[in-house]
Amino acid sequence: MNPQLVTSQDVREAIRVLELTNRPLCVHSSLRSFGWLEEGATTVINALLCEGCTVMVPSFTDEFEVPPPTNRRLLRNGYDYDASVQSPTTDGRWYSPESVAINPDMGTLPAAIVATPGRLRGDHALNSFCAVGPMAAELIQCQRPLTVYAPLAALAEAGGWVILMGVGLDRLTLIHYAEQRTGQTLFRRWSCDRYGQIVELEVGGCSAGFEQLSASVASIERVIDVGQSRWRAYPVSEFVELTVAAIRKNPSLTHCADPACARCNDSMLGGPFNLDEDNPNCLA
After folding, report:
1. Pairing of strands 229-235, 222-226
2. What 3-state class would DSSP assign to 123?
3. What is the pLDDT of residues 196-214, one digit of tens each?
4. pTM score, whole prediction
5. Which of 9, 148, 206, 284 is deepest in the core (most CB within 10 A)?
6. How far apart are CA 206 and CA 172, in angstroms?
7. How many CB atoms lie within 10 A of CB 89?
8. pLDDT tens string 216-258
């Protein structure tokens, strides 16, 4: 047997060592990081379910985005409105939680969960979460266009954990939720509903600088190697508390390496403002 072969039993043993059996989990993963994984994504999903875990993943879908209405060109929104004129439309396509569409760069595991019979997916055309397992409905049912991170709030309430399987903090959507908790207003984007109406949605910003939070959360980190994959696991509630404190102390802590990054700069300033349609402070 190849020494790098990772089996379902290896994954189950890792969950037991991390003391995460029967916990709801948000998983961010690179299956390539494992080396040789016995049956691909199926091995990981089945192993987690056999340990009584609920498995939630981000399942984002940029293809449903449309340009904003002209009266919603919000200030400080990390968005190039001039470029949006050239943005593709959905050509009559609209999102529903039953959709199996997913961005290719989300990875193999989220795509497999989206394709799993009986999974539940949030009602958010761009930044949905998808889950399988006993607590899937509890985590997912509250996600709407303007409550993008409700599944993460529910995960925290349920005593859940996040696991990074061979990926870094720059893949951890939970940090966007922490940014929101500091008082930042999330960015706004737009999609089409099934009736052809433009819908406004909350989304997060740039995540390229998130690894700079590693020292702030090191005290609650649990680490284990599974094959060639290094896993880092964090309790959601404690992670958010530490991250919120770190960002409030140093708002530029998560700024990416590009000093001109509009999303990072606008996030540091508090995000889009004057969202009341009766307020005139948006771009002409």
Report:
1. antiparallel
2. coil
3. 889 999 999 999 999 999 9
4. 0.93
5. 148
6. 11
7. 10
8. 999 999 999 999 999 999 999 999 999 999 999 999 999 999 9
Give dist(CA 72, CA 264) in Å, integer: 21
Residue type, 195: Y
Place of tokens 């299956």: 31
The number of residues in the chain equals 284
Distance CA 10, CA 227 (A): 8
| Cα angle: 215, vertex 203, 186; to 5 degrees | 75
Measured distance CA(110)–CA(112) in Å, rounded? 5
Domain boundaries, the chain: 5-268
Q: In 3D, which of 144, 147, 151, 146 has the Cα closest to residue 130? A: 151
Which residue in 167, 152, 174 sits closest to 231, CA to CA? Answer: 167
CA angle 85, 91, 94 (to 5 degrees): 105
Between strands 36-37 and 5-6, the pairing is parallel
Q: Which residue, among 226, 284, 283, 220, has the nearest Cα to 75 in the 3D structure? A: 283
Q: Count each helix (H run) and each strand (E run) in the chain, helices first.
A: 10, 11
Find tokens 């922490």 and name the residue.
178
Half-sphere exposure of 241 (CA within 13 A, CB side): 9
Provide the strand spans (E) within 198-251.
Answer: 198-203, 222-226, 229-235
Whole-angstrom distance, CA of residue 68 vs CA of residue 73? 7
For residue range 59-78, list pLDDT tens digits in order: 999 999 999 988 889 999 99
Q: Is the pLDDT of residue 22 over 70?
A: yes
Q: What is the largest CA-CA distance in the chain?
A: 67
Q: Rounded distance, CA 165 to CA 136, Å?
A: 20
- Give, in degrees to the nearest 5, the angle at Cα 49 between 46 and 54: 135
